[in-house]
Amino acid sequence: MKKSTNELFNEIMTAKDYESFRRANADNFTCMKLDRALMAKMEEKKLTKSDVIKGSGMAKTYAYQIFDGKKANPHIDKVLLLCIGMGLSIEETQNLLKVTGYRMLSPRDQRDSYICYAIKNRMNIIDINLGLQELNLKILE
Question: How confident is the model over 43-60, as pLDDT tens digits?
């Protein structure tokens, strides 16, 4: 059974040792490997790697390294590019970030909020980067 964050926090604060806490709560951790999460989402949406790469604007070799698990912890921007390439909703994007251990996009951060807006409105990567540039924010690359 999944425990709330508060329950987990209380348990870690009273744990005699970390290993027993870790074993007792292994199914409560949210760290799915990125390559597995991406493949599962692509299967669900019936997309190919090449479809996703085309929509992401990423270099093919780098994207394939992420899909193959050879780039285990790419920068969050690369993950966002792949989410955009898959046409994920903002909810799906946030969930993928969360379950793979990345920070979720924050509406309090101007760049993040623009990216959320762009994903919600199904903007392509070129238009997203043009908008980021107009706002003097770092583009997705």
Answer: 999 999 999 999 999 999
